[in-house]
Design a protein that fits this description.
By secondary structure, this protein is α/β, with parallel strands linked by helices. It has helices spanning about 5-10, 15-25, 40-50, 60-75, 100-115, 125-130, 135-140, 155-165, 240-250, 255-270, 285, 290-295, and strands spanning about 55-60, 80-85, 120-125, 145, 165-170, 175-180, 185-190, 195-200, 205-210, 220, 225, 300-305. The chain contains 12 helices and 12 strands. A hairpin with a 7-residue loop joins β7 (about 185-190) and β8 (about 195-200).
Length: about 300
């Protein structure tokens, strides 16, 4: 259901016009009283009028999820409305975060760094906002585009994708996966609706086709594909000397000898570019960014029931 047309009824209201005009001034702060059911209507109409990125922070995770769904209906622009959810794991827990949660967070970060399309709305909770993520510097340094006609070093490209969190399997069936068969590379970029098949002629990209992962049939020929990180925790992108210094300051004397050996072994594997099952346990060493780092200074931050 698209309710975007209803914004025309709110736009001429004097109180709304005053609020919108106040918010057009940079570095301003204002408070508005809004009934909960009217919040998505107000936000959607403000977003339409201000045409600026918007970050909406609510107290609880389920509120962010619910508001995300309602704003999609009120704006009629699903591609511009993003949910930045909280991760399920606490620092130093040996639990695996759901990959869809990680990729939702990455898609929201990408929306804030991209100049394409309409300004985004990002919905998040206080918990998710407080959690660390991939630093903006690393995100922008690794994000890239491959295009037809590009000259590429195949091994270097595949190694870069591995360091960006892409997993290599025999076939790609969901975002964050890639595979190689001779001079043909299949990659399913995070944020894409379909995987891409990249065919090389020597070191030159000869063609790029989007395909259906179920039937393997080509759907569309494109001239480029955007590749963004597939994971928030990227050990291979972190300075090793810095990591060694951080590790040397950790006191593991209260751990058993077996557990100390396990930590040292896993950390060595990470430094060598190998995967470990409990990567989230070490996220604190690699994730130094926050969502607010990505948010532009001229954007609008809305806190609901602060």
């Amino acid at each position: 259901m698209n309710l975007a047309a209803l914004s025309t009824f709110l736009e001429p209201v004097p109180q709304f016009q005053q609020l919108r005009d106040d918010l057009r001034q940079l570095q301003t702060s204002t408070t508005a009283q809004v009934v909960s059911d009217g919040l998505p209507y107000l936000l959607a109409t403000l977003w339409k009028g201000l045409e600026t990125p918007m970050l909406v922070v609510v107290p609880r995770p389920e509120q962010a999820s619910r508001l995300h769904e309602r704003l999609q209906a009120w704006t009629g622009a699903e591609e511009s409305i993003h949910h930045f959810p909280e991760t399920e794991t606490l620092p130093f827990e040996r639990l695996v975060t759901d990959i869809e949660t990680v990729q939702q967070r990455i898609r929201a970060l990408h929306a804030l760094t991209s100049s394409e399309g309409r300004p985004p709305i990002v919905l998040t909770s206080a918990v998710a906002l407080a959690q660390r993520t991939l630093s903006q510097e690393t995100f922008e340094r690794t994000e890239h585009t491959i295009s037809v006609g590009d000259q590429v070093d195949l091994e270097d490209t595949l190694e870069l994708w591995r360091s960006m969190g892409y997993r290599f399997e025999t076939s790609v069936y969901q975002p964050g996966f890639a595979s190689r068969r001779g001079g043909i590379i299949d990659v399913f970029p995070v944020g894409a609706s379909l995987p891409a098949r990249v065919e090389l002629w020597g070191n030159e990209i000869d063609s790029i086709r989007l395909f259906d992962p179920n039937t393997q049939r080509s759907v569309e020929i494109v001239d480029h594909v955007d590749i963004m990180p597939a994971h928030e925790t990227l050990p291979a992108m972190t300075d090793h000397d810095q990591l060694d210094g951080q590790m040397s300051r950790i006191d593991v004397s209260n751990c058993t000898e077996t557990y100390q050996e396990r930590i040292q072994e896993e950390f060595s594997q990470l430094l060598d570019g190998h995967e470990v099952d409990d990567l989230n346990l070490y996220a604190g060493f690699f994730n130094h960014g926050t969502l607010l780092d990505y948010f532009p200074s001229d954007g609008l931050v809305v806190t609901h029931r602060p």
